[in-house]
Amino acid sequence: xxxxxxxxxxxxxxxxxxxxxxxxxxxxxxxxxxxxxxxxxxxxxxxxxxxxxxxxxxxxxxxxxxxxxxxxxxxxxxxxxxxxxxxxxxxxxxxxxxxxxxxxxxxxxxxxxxxxxxxxxxxxxxxxxxxxxxxxxxxxxxxxxxxxxxxxxxxxxxxxxxxxxxxxxxxxxxxxxxxxxxxxxxxxxxxxxxxxxxxxxxxxxxxxxxxxx
Length: 213
Description:
Layout: H1 4-25, H2 33-46, E1 51-55, H3 61-68, E2 72-77, H4 80-89, E3 94-97, E4 110-116, H5 127-137, E5 138-149, E6 155-158, E7 166-169, H6 174-183, E8 187-194, E9 206-212
Parallel strand pairs: 1-2, 1-4, 2-3, 4-5
Antiparallel strand pairs: 5-9, 6-7, 8-9
Helix pairs in contact: 1-4
């Protein structure tokens, strides 16, 4: 079993180091048209004014977009440096530090959970625990949106923007992730796949799963 502290510490250290460069590099790049359609579909399922958590929110780009779609959304992230940017650029929204694996939220308290490329640093053996935690905080009938890169081998990124840090970015098969979601008590609502988009720096296909508790 993976020591959760190890990968959480590595993830936090990585994003604390690159936060400002990351936010500037991806400024204005929320996603491809298909990605935005998925976010809109999720917002419609959650319903106007629904309470939603953007888990692993980074600099808050998706959080702000979901708020613009009419959701009552807050962001959570491990990295205080990322959260500082999110708060600076979105002072009207709430952002908190924490781990997706241990959410400080009551059972069934959310209408929706978004994990927009934030599960990609979680080791495979920790995914069942992660998905059970997502399900725990969702109300019956609530929805989860999960975005990730498709593939079998992880991408190891070292010295991003010249910083002396490194991290693995795990790619996964939608069929495998769907099975784990079902094991955790979810029912798949939709699966969307799109090819790489050079304008976004994508080199592999992307997957978007919406599942219902």
